Amino acid sequence: KNFFKKSIEAFAQDKTVAAIKTSYTTKQETLIEKIVTKKIGEGFEPRFIRKDVFIEINGFPEIGFGEDVVFVQKLEEYCKEKNMKFLFLKDVYFSGHGVQTLKALYKQGFWYGKTSLLFLSKVRESGLQKLKRAIFVYMRSIYLLSFVLLLLALLNMLFLIAGVPFLVIFLSRIMAAIREKSPYPALQTITYFVSGFALLHGVLVFVLGLDRKAGL
User: How far is CA 171 from the centre of its chain?
Assistant: First the structure.
């Protein structure tokens, strides 16, 4: 309600506003949606942006996954340089569906994996920040591989230490479920296997040159 009206008014009231982001709500109609998406939160990328600003920062890069991250980094740098605002309207919401099925989750993970290396080459970070970003991007795949190595520890204890990432992530999701009094964060430990494998699949397809078209 009043999504457009309040957003337009924010631009009209302050000429230094370059872009606006809003809150969001996610429709929770399937079990997968409830597990992998937040019900409510702060939108990351802008819902509205001045046309002249969009053109000046050259819009979204054609990389697929992570194009919104690179775009927002450019926007924030522009706002800092031009002394303009990237405004957050907390009481304005947009709503829609997240990933609704395991098949859609796999398709999303595959797309992320296939375009993730392009994203990491474009993201405006360096050194430790880029390393942290890479760990975040591949966290679900690290989780999957760590689990496999933990199983191998049953045969050879040398693999035991490689299972630490799996245990850390697994326990963090269990603690989140206890803290939030909801089973859904704990169930993410299962969906991480699906998206982690899909991500690895996508990376492999890109590295082998089987399909390097961004976003497909």
Answer: 21
